[in-house]
């Protein structure tokens, strides 16, 4: 899905950038161009970066095993 219409940046590109170590909106903009024009995509882009930073939830079933 396109997140940044101005620069044609998709959620997958943002996730790939985060997986490659991108940890801030400023760095994301430098790497992908996301947010470099109107900026209306920045909130959505930040939510995706936050999702990628969130630790994986442990599965309770596995902890009990
Ligand atoms: S939609 Fe991303 S800069 Fe405009």
Which ligands accompany this protein? FE2/S2 (inorganic) cluster
Largest beta-sheet characterization: 2 strands, antiparallel
CATH classification class: Mainly Alpha
Shape by Cα distribution: elongated
- Report the count of strand segments: 2
In the residues, how many domains can be counted?
Answer: 1
CATH homology superfamily: BFD-like [2Fe-2S]-binding domain
Strand line-up of the largest beta sheet = 1-2
Order of helices and strands: EEHHHH
CATH topology: Arc Repressor Mutant, subunit A
Instruction: Report the C-alpha radius of gyration, rounded.
Output: 14 Å
Category from helices, strands and their pairing: mainly alpha
**SS strand fraction:** 5-15%
User: For the terminal residues, how far apart are their CA atoms?
Assistant: 38 Å
The unreliable regions are none
Task: Write down the overall mean pLDDT.
Answer: 91
Percent of residues in helical segments? 40-55%
Query: How many separate helices?
Result: 4
């Amino acid at each position: 899905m396109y997140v940044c219409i101005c620069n044609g940046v998709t959620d997958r590109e943002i996730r790939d950038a985060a997986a490659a170590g991108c940890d801030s909106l400023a760095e994301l903009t430098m790497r992908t161009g996301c947010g470099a024009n109107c900026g209306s995509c920045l909130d959505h882009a930040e939510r995706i970066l936050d999702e990628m930073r969130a630790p994986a939830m442990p599965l309770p079933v596995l902890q009990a095993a």
